[in-house]
Design goal:
disordered C terminus; mainly beta; OB fold (Dihydrolipoamide Acetyltransferase, E2P); 0% helix; 51% strand
């Protein structure tokens, strides 16, 4: 991987700012503005505060992220 390639992380949505735009927090505590990708528009109505999402960031601007979708929870159901 080149150092300039985008990378993906899991983020937690803090609040919905407008349709297709959320404030989200990464696992290290950094907050980003997350906007919906074309693929995420199908699940846009399911994303609310507290939802975990997969985001793609670039090393050039760590203040914005693209929501790629909602991760599949692979933990066993109790």
């Amino acid at each position: 991987m080149r150092p300039r390639d985008p990378f993906q992380e899991i983020a937690c949505v803090k609040e919905r700012l407008q349709p297709g735009l959320w404030r989200a927090e990464l696992s290290n505590g950094h907050e980003v503005l997350a906007y919906a990708s074309r693929a995420a528009r199908a699940v846009e109505n399911e994303i609310c505060a507290g939802t975990r999402v997969v985001v793609r960031l670039t090393p050039f601007d760590l203040s914005k992220a693209k929501v790629m979708g909602v991760p599949v929870d692979r933990s066993p159901v109790e």
